[in-house]
Amino acid sequence: MGKLSSPLRPRTSLLRHGLVAAEAGAIFLTALLPAPSFAEFQLQEWKLHRAEKGEKNLIGGLSVFQTDSNRDGSGNVVGIQNLSHYRRTAANLALEWGAHSRMTFYGRATWLWNDIEGAGLSANRFGFSDQTIGMAFRLIDRSIAVDFQAQADLAAYSNVQDAGAGRPFLGDSSNDFTVGGFATLPLSANGDRSWQLRGGAGYTFRSGQFSTAVPWSMELLSRPAFRGFTFTAGASGMQSLRNDPRGSEAISASNPSEQARLQSGGSFLVNAVNPSLATVSASLGYQTDEATGFHA
Predict the structure, then answer these.
(1) Bridge-partner residues for 135, per DSSP?
(2) What confidence tens digit (pLDDT) does each residue in 130-178 have?
(3) Which of the listed residues 6, 175, 227, 272 has the most CB atoms within 10 Å of its CB?
(4) Three-class SS of residue 115?
(5) 24-46 burial, b for 16+ CB within 10 Å, e for fewer?
(6) Cβ(74)–Cβ(260) under 8 Å?
(7) In this structure, how many other beta carbons lie within 10 angstroms of the beta carbon of residue 268?
(8) Residue 96 CB: number of other CB atoms within 10 A?
(9) Cα dihedral 110, 292, 178, 235 sign
């Protein structure tokens, strides 16, 4: 990722500036929360978007999710009949703009490639998935920073049209609206490196009668002031409030019909009922200069 020319020149020092990175991948360890999950699927993590006044931060990312199994109503892993794999490749591009010293506007475009392979079945679908717009407002900027954040994740596709054409779904076609906050505690800072602890939680309303949920995240961050290695470790997830009117029955099945296999691979990746999940992640990267960084 090359250095951007002014005025689009981003900053990456987390003590004073928003994060700018080109992500080359991610390794996720996924575990169930105590409530049973009917889903194995990808969600955008609930993370703070922050840019200083006048800054424009560009963040790119690439991730791959693949499965040939599912979880039943008790949370046990089960195979999906006749399915060799369900693979989702996602490319993200986000832009953060510091409109004011306290106000940041942001948007994120997500492009997906879905590929299903199995016995007598081969289907793929690519296009824009759920797109994000949002804003963050810094309420407190002292020894502990407190931010309010609101965002909307809007479906840029039609499952009705895809079902009619027999194509895999790019998502559950719901529109999600989330409000919440973050608290950032500086652990140490000197002229060369800063360490921070950040936690956040929110409330998500989902259309289509899907259960409302509480997204959350907690992470430890270390960044150099100008050049050097970066490190992030933490956890994030979504806790369902389990108020989906359809109860606890999964819409898909481990032995899906031909139509269900074609549209979701039987992986519950779409139309999950009352899903809860947690993701543990760690990343290591390198900040090449004040304007550009990479991590994986």
Answers:
(1) 105, 150
(2) 999 999 999 999 999 999 999 999 999 988 888 888 788 888 888 999 9
(3) 272
(4) strand
(5) eebeeeeebeeebbbbbbbbbbb
(6) no
(7) 27
(8) 24
(9) positive
- At residue 263, φ and ψ (nearest 5 deg) are -95, -30
Tokens of 89: 């490749």
Residues 71, 273 contacting (CB under 8 angstroms): no
Residue 28 tokens, joined? 């996720």
Integer angstrom CA distances of residue 112 from 130, 234, 284? 9, 25, 25
Give Cβ neighbours of residue 184 (< 8 Å, ≥ 6 apart): 48, 144, 145, 146, 147, 196, 197, 198
Rounded to whole angstroms, how far apart are CA atoms 253 and 115?
19
Contact present, 169 and 178 (Cβ < 8 Å): no
160's tokens? 């009705």
**Residue 71: band (very low, low, confident or very high) from pLDDT cuts 50, 70, 90:** low
d(CA 189, CA 200): 21
pLDDT tens figures, 6-56: 333 333 333 333 333 333 333 333 333 334 444 444 467 899 999 999 999
Q: Band of the pLDDT at 123, cuts 50, 70, 90?
A: confident
Host H or E run for residue 178: strand 176-189
> Which pTM was predicted?
0.79
- Three-state DSSP class for residue 163: helix
